[in-house]
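Hey,
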Amino acid sequence: VVKPMLEQEDLERYGKRCNLILIDTDLSPNDYFGVINVDDDASAYQLTELIYNMNHRKIAYFYGAQAARS
């Protein structure tokens, strides 16, 4: 599993040698790697709902720069 910082050609080269899955990328899956994208807003909502239902009430949300994706 890789959070890609490499060019697509490099990822395809690695994908020829091993099973490669990219996370949160604009690239499309192909014969060399798979892709998993996450809906961050929906995930945050589900997590907040879960901890609220566990009777936690002091819930804070912190975020960084828009370009700093987790």
